[in-house]
Automatic annotation (TrEMBL), chain A:
<dbReference type="InterPro" id="IPR005225">
    <property type="entry name" value="Small_GTP-bd"/>
</dbReference>
<dbReference type="GO" id="GO:0003924">
    <property type="term" value="F:GTPase activity"/>
</dbReference>
<dbReference type="GO" id="GO:0005525">
    <property type="term" value="F:GTP binding"/>
</dbReference>
<dbReference type="InterPro" id="IPR001806">
    <property type="entry name" value="Small_GTPase"/>
</dbReference>
<keyword id="KW-0342">GTP-binding</keyword>
<keyword id="KW-0547">Nucleotide-binding</keyword>
<dbReference type="InterPro" id="IPR027417">
    <property type="entry name" value="P-loop_NTPase"/>
</dbReference>
<dbReference type="InterPro" id="IPR050227">
    <property type="entry name" value="Rab"/>
</dbReference>
<dbReference type="Pfam" id="PF00071">
    <property type="entry name" value="Ras"/>
</dbReference>
<protein>
    <submittedName>
        <fullName>GTP-binding protein</fullName>
    </submittedName>
</protein>
Length: 163, 272
């Protein structure tokens, strides 16, 4: 039986939501920044050999918003999992991380949220350790859409957790 | 003066001009030889530089001159629209003519096949209908041929946009992507107008009409090609409501297989 799951990616402008999806779906990356307007839908089938099944991930790439409360709430309905993306090299994108996550939890109760620090290639490990108080405890994974580091891992683990 | 000296003087007298001439020729030959050698040496040194510059030129020209050329072309087209139309008109005209001819031929073949089956039940029924209604038989045939075609039906979960069930005669679209995008468009439109209990019910895309029938936890998207009019819409709505009310229960919504089976059975004959 075919299983489909709706995954919504959220975060500030330019944190790399679309780049993460493109890296995962098409295995491509571009330095050119193209702003997402509204929403963009992507799809990729992920095979879970341990469970002998395939999951079709329908990825909703929402336009960036510096304030999550401005997000169109109807896009969040029926979501099976959120991926909240921030840019590890831009403090403005994670300074309100805690309150933004609270907002999501309040609006979509019982929907799992994976917090991802993107652009890991731009900073050193020391930097990540130094800033652990700001985002470390809330972050599930550091990834890089540019190098592809841990991008497949992120989506595969999520797909596995959803079935 | 011995014999050798005399011979030498005689040679000088007889051959002086020729020797000078031969010497001049030799000098000129040497000059020519130098020039040729120098050119060869020069070309050996200069050719790689020219090749490199040419390669750079080929790589750089689209970057440096590309935008200028594009902009010039755009402004030329903008400023000379009449000339562009003049140039394109014969080509587009031919294309349209060919397309219309082809479509007319198909239509003519279909009409012929309908007319040829004079004694069929359908034909007799049409004749009777024509006499009774006063509409000519030709008009009735045209009406029969211009029927809307139900291309695809998708049952989509509200909110998530995940497809619950689907029925189509030809698989031509990525259902997950389309159902997701339809749901996003629906959500946006319904959110943006900020009026409660209003739902998007119709989208037109190229030659396709997408009828959206809303239910409480799901909606049905029906993709139709051909003429889509109020009468057809009304019949379709009746069919969809009948299907949802009499054939679908709450368990079917969770059971994709059962839903798809019922959907196929109900819409297989495409009779509306």
């Amino acid at each position: 039986m075919k299983i489909s799951k709706k995954i919504v990616l959220l975060g500030h402008f330019g944190v790399g939501k679309s780049s993460l999806i493109r890296r995962f779906v098409e295995n491509t990356f571009s330095e050119d920044y193209k702003v997402t307007i509204g929403v963009h839908i992507f799809k990729k089938n992920v095979s879970i050999p341990e469970k002998g099944t395939d999951v079709s991930l329908v990825l909703w790439d929402l336009e960036g918003n510096d304030d999550i409360s401005n997000t169109r709430l109807s896009y969040l309905i029926g979501t099976h999992a959120f991926i909240y993306v921030y840019d590890v090299s831009r403090p403005a994108t994670y300074k309100n991380l805690e309150s933004e996550l609270e907002f999501l939890k309040e609006k979509q109760k019982n929907t799992p949220i994976t917090v991802v620090g993107n652009k890991e290639d731009l900073v050193t490990k020391t930097y990540l350790k130094q800033n652990v108080d700001d985002f470390g405890s809330l972050t599930d994974l550091y990834v890089s859409a540019k190098t592809g580091h841990k991008v497949d891992f992120l989506f595969s683990k999520l797909a596995e957790a959803l079935i | 003066m011995n014999q050798d000296e005399r011979l030498s003087i005689l040679k000088d007298i007889l051959l002086t001009d020729e020797r000078e001439y031969a010497k001049k020729v030799e000098e000129k030959l040497k000059i020519v030889e130098d020039i040729v050698n120098k050119q060869n040496e020069l070309s050996e040194r200069v050719n790689p530089i020219i090749d490199e510059k040419l390669n750079d030129f080929v790589v750089e020209i689209p970057k440096t001159l590309g935008p200028t050329i594009t902009e010039t072309l755009k402004s030329e087209i903008r400023n000379s629209q009449d000339a562009v139309v003049e140039a394109l008109f014969p080509i587009i005209g031919k294309m349209i003519k060919k397309y219309i001819q082809q479509e007319m031929q198909i239509l003519s073949e279909q009409i012929n096949s309908k007319v040829n089956s004079t004694f069929s039940f359908e034909s007799l029924k049409r004749k009777f209908k024509s006499k009774r209604s006063g509409v000519s038989e030709a008009d009735l045939i045209l009406q029969e041929l211009a029927q809307p075609i139900l291309e695809q039906i998708m049952v989509i979960e509200k909110g998530s946009g995940i497809i619950i069930s689907e029925y189509s005669k030809t698989q031509s679209i990525d259902q997950d992507m389309v159902s997701g995008m339809l749901t996003a468009i629906k959500s946006f439109a319904e959110d943006a107008f900020e009026k409660e209990n209003q739902e998007l019910s119709y989208i037109e895309y190229d030659n396709f009409h997408i009828h959206l029938q809303n239910f409480s936890s799901y909606y049905i998207a029906v993709i139709i090609s051909g003429p889509y009019n109020v009468m057809y819409k009304s019949k379709l709505e009746d069919k969809l409501l009948d299907f949802a009310k009499n054939y679908i229960n709450e368990y079917d919504i969770k059971d994709t297989k059962s839903f798809t089976k019922k959907l196929e059975q109900y819409f297989k004959n495409n009779v509306l």
